[in-house]
Specification:
The protein is mostly beta strands. 5% of the residues lie in helices and 59% in strands. The chain is built from 6 helices and 35 strands. The strands form 5 sheets. It has a 22-stranded antiparallel β-barrel. Strand 21 and strand 22 form a beta hairpin. The longest helix is centred in the N-terminal third of the chain and has 11 residues. It is globular and about 70 Å long.
């Protein structure tokens, strides 16, 4: 085995931190001779390029090749086989993104290490985020399981998903098309190569989401057209220095239909033509500068992201008789309008220095400003205004306000090679948030090499999640179906806090590989909503719960030959509310997959994946569900960059409406590179 010191020195030579983000990305610009593009190296776990085998954290890398083998048409489907990552449906729209049984808002989602604007409540954060990303410009997806607040601050209690995008290599054009049960997609990736000192890429995606009525009472999904555009450019300044520019625009104009079950009779009678329209637009910009010296790398970057949302509900009920219209019309509105803006901007910088053969030091600082404005804050924020919107002959009058929260942070990390067998990585971060004050989060991880092919890893750390602007200041009065829901923030909320630890054993021998991990998370001050005065439709955010989530992750596999691989994963989770011992919702006690993977590694050949997935005691609304699905996808290749594929999830059409399992899902697609 290469000594850790020599390994670190070699990796430092390869490491050119050009993502201009908190974590760097491994897919570097073609201007660099030392480009690293291998699933054996990750950058998200430690903010530096590090070997998967060496890094103490439990990490997983999903490469572009893996995405293609799965016949993925969106980021959710690209993650369907990620170990202990749950991306199940969240109802009428979106998906949960849960790592190790932690809540969906405990996952930090990054693009090239950048945060981006999005919804910010415990039930909406991250639910739509991955659906707003295109696969055509993804180089790889890195997943860190376990708390990462010492590296990234708030929101990383459960782990990190870092989407790393493609960088320019050589002039080419990729055209793709897919259709299926869920959506029709066509997408385009243009690599302009290097023109003088400037290299760039441009991506465009056009999606038409199909209307699908859920088998439960919720109604339809959000369906309609989506457009997504992204530009990335790099200017080579010479002397190992460069500027990076990214521009992004996302536009969604969708709608949803409410199910017949919302229709009642008598004075509350409502037609079946209840629809809700959604107009979402997101703008993303970043500009950064980075360089490399004899002793390390440095970067600084400014970024801006804004999500602009507008929702309209048309509820075509008959008029209420006489005075009942003025009394109950607010509870059963004919027309409701909702507008929100989420803005995130800031600056961040980082430096990595090789102090000697034994110590690689990383330190940095960042400043962020979050701003939320709109009708969902009502009169709970600053600069309150009265606004109105008309539609379909009716008018909706609401209060509109805004609120800002500022955060600044500093962190330091040392990658210490104690000897040829032991790597220790201590780190600490200090965050100051204008809404609640300061938080210090330490962490320490270690990898001990038992041999060239086996190792023990262990991690311990603190984590936190700051209360968001909406959770602090919301004053929302919004029609949802046939009812008006009122939700209020709580400016006295405390941050959620967690103490986490895990221990792993990993090994490879001949064609066999495997790993087993035990993890434990103790979470306090969980933020949730409680009814006001016993009313289900009137809620307020509070700190009430304390949860303990622990479990075991198991992965074993064998390369049968150079074409066939068999692999199994099994994840056990015990997630309980410590106040009463009850199980937490939206989690299975056990999720197991058995996978058979084929790839002939021929540019004109085939690849295929067949897998079975079992879910045992999936808890939802105090009920347990056990089910399994069979899934298959096949790719036919026609030279490098050209393929057609077909796939079917849930082949035997299993349906469990309560948890969003609505039967078989099929897809067909083709991709061509010129």
């Amino acid at each position: 085995m290469m000594s850790i010191a020599k390994k670190k020195s070699a990796l430092l030579t390869l490491s050119i931190l050009l993502s201009l983000s908190a974590p760097t990305y491994a897919a570097e610009s073609s201007t660099n001779a030392d480009t690293v593009k291998t699933p054996d190296v990750v950058v998200t776990a430690t903010r530096t390029q590090e070997e998967v085998k060496a890094v103490p954290q439990t990490v997983e890398v999903i490469t572009q090749e893996d995405i293609e083998k799965l016949g993925a048409t969106d980021v959710y489907s690209a993650l369907r086989l990620a170990s202990n990552v749950d991306v199940t449906s969240a109802g009428m729209a979106g998906h949960n993104v849960m790592i190790r049984g932690m809540s969906t808002n405990h996952t930090l989602i990054l693009v090239d290490g950048k945060r981006f604007a999005g919804e910010d409540t415990s039930t909406t954060q991250n639910v739509y985020a991955l659906g707003r990303l295109s696969l055509s410009n993804i180089e790889r997806i890195e997943i860190v399981r376990g708390s990462a607040s010492a590296q990234y601050g708030s929101d990383a209690l459960g782990g990190v998903i870092n989407i790393i995008t493609k960088k320019s290599e050589k002039p080419s054009t990729t055209v793709g098309f897919s259709t299926g049960s869920d959506a029709i997609n066509n997408y385009y990736h243009f690599d302009f190569g290097k023109q003088g000192k400037f290299s760039s890429t441009f991506d465009a995606r056009f999606t038409d989401v199909r209307k699908n009525m859920h088998s439960g009472d919720e109604g339809s999904n959000y369906y309609g057209p989506i457009q997504d555009f992204n530009f990335s450019g790099t200017y080579d300044l010479g002397d190992n220095k460069q500027l990076d520019l990214t521009l992004g625009y996302y536009n969604e104009h969708t709608k949803a239909d409410y199910a017949d079950s919302w229709t009642s009779s008598g004075v509350f009678q409502t037609s079946k033509d209840k629809k809700e329209w959604y107009d979402y637009r997101r703008y993303d910009y970043s500009l950064g500068y980075s360089g490399k010296t004899d002793s390390g790398d440095y970067m600084i970057r400014a970024f801006y992201s804004k999500l602009d949302k507008e929702n309209k509900l048309y509820n075509y009920r008959d008029n209420l008789p006489g005075p009942m219209e003025s009394i109950l019309g607010g509870m059963y509105p004919k027309y409701d309008w909702d507008k929100s803006k989420y803005t995130l901007y800031g600056i961040e910088g980082k430096n990595t220095m090789q102090l000697n053969d034994d110590h690689l030091l990383t330190f940095g600082a960042e400043y962020r400003k979050n701003k939320v404005e709109g009708t969902r804050l009502g009169d709970g924020g600053d600069n309150v205004q009265n606004v109105s919107q008309s539609g379909n002959g009716y008018t909706s009058n609401k209060s509109y306000s805004e609120k800002e929260v500022n955060t600044w942070a500093g962190y330091i990390q040392d990658e210490w090679m104690v000897n040829d067998k032991l790597l220790i990585i201590p780190s600490v971060r200090y965050d100051h948030d204008s809404s609640f004050g300061s938080e210090t989060t330490p962490k320490i991880g270690a990898t001990y090499f038992l041999s060239d092919n086996s190792r023990i890893k262990a991690n311990w750390g603190k984590g936190f999640k700051a209360p968001t602007i909406s959770e602090l200041y919301m004053a929302m009065h919004r029609a949802m179906g046939g009812q008006t829901v009122n939700v209020y923030g709580n400016p006295d909320l405390k941050p959620e806090e967690a103490t986490s630890w895990d221990i792993s054993f990993e090994a490879e021998k001949d064609n066999n590989f495997g790993k087993i991990t035990y993890f434990n998370n103790d979470v306090k001050n969980l933020i949730t909503t409680q009814p006001i005065g016993g009313s289900y439709y009137d809620q307020r955010y509070v700190n009430v719960a304390e949860a303990e989530i622990d479990g075991v992750e198991l992965e074993i596999g064998r390369n049968l030959d150079d074409k066939w691989t068999v692999k199994a994963t099994s994840n056990w989770i015990d997630a309980t509310d410590k106040s009463d011992g009850s199980r937490l919702d939206n989690r299975a006690k056990n999720m197991t997959t058995l996978q058979l993977i084929y790839d002939d590694h021929d540019d004109n050949g085939y690849s295929a994946v067949l897998w079975q997935q079992w879910a045992n005691d999936y808890r939802y609304d105090d009920n347990d569900y056990t089910f399994n699905t069979t899934n298959f996808v096949i790719n036919k290749k026609f030279g490098e960059g050209n393929r057609v594929y077909a796939g079917v999830d849930n082949i035997f059409d299993k349906k469990v409406s309560d948890i969003g399992l609505d039967g078989m899902v099929w897809r067909l697609g083709a991709e061509w590179t010129f």
